[in-house]
Amino acid sequence: MRSPSNEQKTRETDVDGIHDMGGQDGWGTVAIDPDEQVFAEPWEGRAFALGAMSGGLSGTNLDAFRHSLERLHPLEYLGDGYYGRWLACAELLLVDHGIIPAGAVAARAANLMGGEVEEPTDTSGSKPEYERNGGGSIRQIDEERMFEVGDRIRARDLHRRGHHRMPAYIRGRSGVVTAFRPAAVLPDSTAHFVGEDAQHVYTVTFESTELWGPDAEPATLNIDLFESYMEAIS
Amino acid sequence: MTASPLRADRAPAAIRTEALEALLTEKGLVNAGGLDGLIKRFVNDVGPMNGAKVVAKAWTDPEFYERLLADGTAAVGEFGFSGPQGEHIVVVENSDTMHNVVVCTLCSCYPWPLLGLPPDWYKDPAYRSRVVREPRKLLGEMGLDLDESIDITVWDSSAENRYFILPQRPAGTDGLSEDELAALVSREAMVGVAQVRAPA
């Protein structure tokens, strides 16, 4: 059996995953269905509700939930759609943090389909021990901002292991700070229960030619970046 | 090895959902009524009709319009619209020269209190991948052909700020009430993949 720390290391190698879709090719087109229901099938609603509750039940948080999405096998990420992802994430968090045994869902599912499978009973892992400094993600911080509106910055060429919120398509690209946003907990830290590391957040504006080359379709891209994702251009 | 290898023999999602709910129910951690309440809330009570009320008010009340653009979170809070995925709302206005459109390339972040849960097209890999790279082409494929004179700004919701588009009020709607205006405003217009049209 792997120790939790080894498991954590394994998972932290997942950095540029299937989830980071900005700019990918090959997905075809998409149509709007004006008659779409909120949940196409009843199980989707149940999976949504279980996913929404899984953070609280496992003692984790929204950032850990997002990271659990990124830890799914790409086929599992895509296979059962959005609420399939939620279901898989709920199971992942609840198993990781000792609420249900690993393999229990698969065993119960087999039994629900008429199987006679022994269901595991031993849980491992525990709820994370870490402090939150408030509800939600927005925080008041005392540090002065490192950047001003109008500053030219570069999105740092970060290749962080584990959870982060900087899409690959802006790495190393230059843009302009166009708005201050409320300081917020850093997802990179919060998702891994090592602290909140609240930081200033900025909206940064990139031109499409900077992101996609000189032949890019003309457009402007605004994205929100945490201060540690940014470096000044001198 | 990934954290969650795909199991070739795994049960259908509906069965696995039932299994997980049963396991948690047996432990006393969830109950059917609690799950039902959450589901009903997002099926019946929280959805694009919330955002449409905000848009109609902004079109008819100049002071509210000013408040909405200055502090979206506070202004939509006047309607009681707040909660998860609505911690900080930023309202962006479309105009004759600028069209704004919202995406979350990394997951599917969306302003739940104003629009409910995201629709399939918003979660589709084609939308998440392409709207940041070829927005005009993709919007055209989705039924919105923008004149070349209109610039496009794409907002990638990568942190906890949630962007909400204030669409343009269509011509020919001067006599309509706030409720009648709200009925014209689609979810798609409030994300920026459509415009609001006057009634035929």
Major sheet of chain B: 2 strands, parallel
Structural class of chain A: alpha+beta
- Count all strands of chain A and give the number: 5
Q: First CA to last CA of chain B: what distance? A: 57 Å
Which of globular, elongated, flat, extended, rod-shaped describes the shape of chain A?
A: globular
Instruction: Quickly give the structural class of chain B.
Output: alpha/beta
Radius of gyration of chain B, in Å, reads 19 Å
Number of helices of chain A: 8
Oligomer: heterodimer
Termini distance of chain A? 51 Å
Q: Treating each run of at least 4 consecutive H or I residues as one helix, how many helices of chain B?
A: 11
Strand % of chain A is 5-15%
Number of strands of chain B: 4
Q: Which stretches of chain B are low in confidence, meaning pLDDT under 50 for 5 or more residues running?
A: none
| Averaged pLDDT of chain B | 95
Order of helices and strands of chain B: HHHHHEEHHHHEEHH
Write structural notes for this entry.
The complex is a heterodimer of chains A (234) and B (200). With 234 residues, chain A is α+β, with helices and mostly antiparallel strands. Chain A is 32% helix and 15% strand. Chain A has helices at 4-12, 42-58, 62-71, 74-79, 81-96, 104-112, 187-190, 208-212; strands at residues 152-155, 174-184, 199-207, 220-226, 230-232. In chain A, strands 4-3-2-1-5 form a 5-stranded antiparallel β-sheet. The longest helix of chain A has 17 residues, at 42-58. Chain A starts with a helix and ends with a strand. Chain B is globular and about 55 Å long. Helix content of chain B is 44%, strand content 12%. In chain B, the strands form 2 sheets. In chain B, strands 1-4 form a two-stranded parallel sheet. A two-stranded parallel ribbon of chain B has the order 2-3. At the A-B interface, α1, α2, α3, α4 and α5 of A face α1, α2, α7, α8 and α9 of B. β4 (220-226) of chain A pairs parallel with β3 of chain B, so a sheet runs across the interface.
